């Protein structure tokens, strides 16, 4: 499964199966340090939605080909349509605003597809993870990075408020409002050690290869669990994050009224008693 650029047939998102139930999604613009365009956002949404509905896929690993994970938005190629719209004198302010909103929706949908995907998504970060690159990994469930990783929330430096996830997700990930605001207001770089200290990532590895290997191994561990249980856990974690404790418990009760009837519960019990690994069907 590969996503191509409509204009150049360049593979923008390269997808492969790394293990029986683990799929690897690579940003594939290494000559531009995986800078993101609106076309790439659209392809990312398409790929993630396909993987969400692929029964054999249970966990997704996201990485970047080449020297960097993602250097941010492609200011040269990625904003040409936006600039054209903004300078269109034939449109009034309201119509230009609505047209710009459509572009922003494409960008948000690209990352929202990751956040909404019922299957766990693990980000394996190396070197640059800048601007929208950092916002991409905020949509992921687990974030690990190599020692050379460096991050920044860069949008204020280019004259806009972050609009593809940083302002709605970062506070919930980190839990330190003061630090989040410092990063968003100043746009300063922070390294892997600082990211780990504040909970932005969960692990650091010496090299990019070791980071990707660790992400793949972690994905394999998760993929051997009941997909009914894992996907239900993600859905309920996402719901409870945005609702009260009482609402979260009501939601998971209703969820498990159906999911407890799955054969996975019985298979887990049988495997435990027989001291063997459980075997679960695809979903």
UniProtKB/TrEMBL annotation:
Give me the reactions it catalyses.
Answer: (3E,5Z,8Z,11Z,14Z)-eicosapentaenoyl-CoA = (2E,4E,8Z,11Z,14Z)-eicosapentaenoyl-CoA; (3E,5Z)-octadienoyl-CoA = (2E,4E)-octadienoyl-CoA
Give the CC-aspect GO terms: mitochondrion; peroxisome
Where is it localised?
A: Peroxisome
Give a Pfam family name: ECH_1
GO terms classed as biological process: fatty acid beta-oxidation
The pathway where this protein functions is: Lipid metabolism; fatty acid beta-oxidation
State the source organism's domain of life.
Eukaryota
Major location, coarse class? other
User: Which Gene3D superfamilies does the record match to this protein?
Assistant: 2-enoyl-CoA Hydratase, Chain A, domain 1, Lyase 2-enoyl-coa Hydratase, Chain A, domain 2
Similarity remark: Belongs to the enoyl-CoA hydratase/isomerase family.
Q: What does this protein do?
A: Isomerization of 3-trans,5-cis-dienoyl-CoA to 2-trans,4-trans-dienoyl-CoA.
The molecule here is called Delta(3,5)-Delta(2,4)-dienoyl-CoA isomerase, mitochondrial
Q: What is the lineage of its organism?
A: Eukaryota, Metazoa, Ecdysozoa, Nematoda, Chromadorea
């Amino acid at each position: 499964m590969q996503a191509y650029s409509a204009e150049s047939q360049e593979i923008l998102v390269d997808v492969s199966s790394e293990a029986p139930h683990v799929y690897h999604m690579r940003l594939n613009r290494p000559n531009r340090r995986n800078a993101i365009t609106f076309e790439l956002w659209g392809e990312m949404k398409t790929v993630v939605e396909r993987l969400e509905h692929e029964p054999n896929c249970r966990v997704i690993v996201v990485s970047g080909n080449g020297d960097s994970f993602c250097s941010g938005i492609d200011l040269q190629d990625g904003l040409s349509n936006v600039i054209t719209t903004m300078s269109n004198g034939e449109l009034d302010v309201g119509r230009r605003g609505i047209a710009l909103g459509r572009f922003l929706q494409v960008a948000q949908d690209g990352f929202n597809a990751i956040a909404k995907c019922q299957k766990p998504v693990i980000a394996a970060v190396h070197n640059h993870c800048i601007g929208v690159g950092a916002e991409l990994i905020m949509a992921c469930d687990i974030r690990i990075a190599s020692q050379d990783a460096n991050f920044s929330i860069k949008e204020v430096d280019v004259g806009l408020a972050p609009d593809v996830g940083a302002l709605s997700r970062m506070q919930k990930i980190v839990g330190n409002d003061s630090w989040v605001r410092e990063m968003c207001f100043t746009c300063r770089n922070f390294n892997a050690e600082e990211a780990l200290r504040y909970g932005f990532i969960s692990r650091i590895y010496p090299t990019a290869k070791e980071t990707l290997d660790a992400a793949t191994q972690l994905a394999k561990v998760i993929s051997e669990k009941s997909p009914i249980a894992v996907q239900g856990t993600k859905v309920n974690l996402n719901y409870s994050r945005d609702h009260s404790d009482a609402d979260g418990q009501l939601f998971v009760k209703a969820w498990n009224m159906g999911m407890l009837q799955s054969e996975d519960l019985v298979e887990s019990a049988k495997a435990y008693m027989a001291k063997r690994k459980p075997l679960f069907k695809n979903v």
